[in-house]
Amino acid sequence: MPKAEKGTPKDIANRMKAKGLQKLKFYCQMCAKQCRDENGFKCHMTSDSHLRQMRIFRENAGGMMDSFSREFEVAYMETLRRRHGTQRMNANNVYQEVIQDKNHIHMNSTKWTTLTDFVQYLGKKGLCVVEETERGWYVTYIERDPALLSRQEKLKKKTEADQREERKAAEQRETLRMEAAKALDRAGCAVERKASEIGSREGGEKMEMKLGGKAGGKKRKARVAGKLSLLEEDDDSDDETGGGNSGSAKPDAMGRRMDQLPGKKPTMAVKHAGEPKMQSTQMRDSDSRENAAKRQKPNGDKEKRKDYWLFRDIVVRIISKKLAGGEYYKRKAVVDKVIDKYQAEVEVLESSRKARDGGDVLRIDQDDLETVVPKEPGEKVRIVNGRHRGKKARVERLDKQNYRAELRLVEDDRTVTLDYEDFSKLA
What is the pTM of this model? Predict the structure, then answer.
């Protein structure tokens, strides 16, 4: 029967029927021809082209069947690896994904008669972990890519190193806290915190609050003000106890206790009986002026330090637990844009290779970020604070005990040693 002319209704109907997947039993793998029904398949079996292909197959039947089997195995394993990775999947579901390709190798042309035989073959060969359940056979791909295994091992080591550093930092904080408590116990002192009224400062000093990144200077001022308030409370308590020998003996005893503190100098002004209160106030004013003058003197690298450190194209770590309910806590990001020196737009990186949860763009303050230190020497970094601020360098050596690193500058090949917080990894 001749074929219908192109464009006729019969030709259109035939092409619509042949568009989708047809029955597997009416497919000839040797001729790569799909028949729509049993009659068409019988006609094809008696055609000259099919008989020629069968004569070729008869000459090398085993080799051609092995070739078809290898192609089917490769297609099945590629589908399992690319779409599901190392997840446990139903073998029949994976097979349905394989046969969605119209030009796939059919199983009736391979050496396996059923899908069960093929799954058992994968298990015996060690390509997959197979498991038989009430719902059928399940397969799990075994990853053997050396590059991927190496990346997973590096990620595991990095996670363990981060956990060790966090534990070490927590132990150091606890040790310092215990030493401070023991020193106070030996001195017989106790720190009493008393809230002050907002807006009322002695000497007419005004308190200012600013939201943003310029927080370093304010914190130092707050600490100095806290020390002065403690001194004033001690002086007031001395006045209330009265004059005479008892009034002079208590400050002397307190001064001796403060001298016993390791590495500390007494900062309390001792006031004897009969001296006016104005004298201690003048001494405190002069001390505060001397401290302010010392802070204003340039001292080597400190004169180059800034209270902002953000740069473009550096890798940072988000340390805010309040941002998005802690969703981005400990996640790494790349700085895309610096805004007003203290804020930045960052693009969140993927937490792992398979997660694909990166790409979010956040606007965040520098107080919620920290620098990222490379784990291996030889990687490029940018110095974000200090005398060499803004310069690129390479990591020569990491001192994990003291949280410092030895860097070699790119522009003049000099070697400098900086703290972890003064440089960050380049993206």
Answer: 0.33
